[in-house]
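Async update (no meeting this week)

Hi team, since we skipped the sync, here's where things stand on the single-chain job. The sequence we agreed to prioritize is pasted below, unchanged from the tracker. I ran it this morning and attached the output directly underneath so nobody has to dig for it. Comments welcome in thread, and please keep replies under the output.
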Amino acid sequence: MPFELEKIQAELRRRGLDGWLLYDFSKRDAIAYRVLGLEAMMVTRRWYYFIPASGTPQKLVHRIESGRLDAVPGQKHVYAAWSQQREELAAMLGTAKKLAMQYSPLNNIPYISIVDAGTIELVRSLGKDIVSSADLVQRFEARWSEAQRESHFAAGKDMDEIMRGTFAELGRRLREGKTPGELEIREWILEQFAARGLTTADGPVVAVNENSSDPHYEPTPKSSRPIRRGDWVLVDMWAKKKQPGAVYYDITWVGIAGAEPTAEQQKVFETVRAARDAAVEFVSGAVSRGEVIHGYQVDDVARAVIRQSGYADYFFHRTGHSIGEDVHSTGVNIDNLETHDEREIMAGICFSVEPGIYLPKFGVRLELDVYVGEKSAGPTGAVQTEIVRIQA
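Output:
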């Protein structure tokens, strides 16, 4: 995405910040490069880029790599010795007091907690007050462009069809008297991704019976279980189009092979479905009314439904995560369990809603993606409303 200097400075002023200090060494902070619109480059020396709330940006680079930030505007400062680095950093920050950095107090939001403790100590030693850049990152790095939004919907159309096809293919193999394994069905899904121009960094998950109780289970040649009639099956898949800047689509459905669900399976499914739908409706209603809500509040809504049904101990992960060019991206997470995510639900972002209940014999997770527009928000693809009956 392009570097939006004027918009960033306006947001800094609105938030009462004196500036945003970006820092990198050895390409540790991918966020900084995306915010600045820079391509990945070889970086073996430390650089700093300071965006003041008003005025000209300042950049500090090592003499050996003095051209590293030439593609972005600002006054260049150059250092060689470590002592000169500290002197130049102090000079370019000037009287600015309250600075945002890629830092999260107590590491509450690990996706943002990137700058090392020593650099934080260095900047604080210059008399600066450091606050988290989490909300700035979300506004200027996690929101989608129109092209990204279109790539998401294109991937979603393909993946909804692949999800339906997965259960159909599983049923076909069972009807032919075969006993397909989890890994075999996983490989079939990956073939469908390749045929439709989709790519994924890992996954997907195909999990049968008790394996579906592990939220991050992934079949391997050693762990893969056979799928038979009467088995409970969970399928979790995520992928994006093979094009620059494309963003992920991430979904989870459940089904039962050649049988009707037990009363317990049906009850758990209905509970998870109600929790998912309550969270989506909470977001949709708030956005349509122009209300500001935060990630932790959405998690609370879903978690309350599961708690009231007596399954609180079996829902042990956040309700959702930010989605972008990485399947777990840098925007707000729907979370008041693993972290207390106070970031704002804002227009242009997308996140999963995926509550789950994981009992010893089977697990249910129902995942969909929610895109937030200026005046409306809702699911971006097909929504599972009933347990899939796999025709075996």
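Quick observations from my side:
The longest helix spans residues 146-175.
The chain has two domains: 5-141, 143-390.
Reply here if anything looks off.
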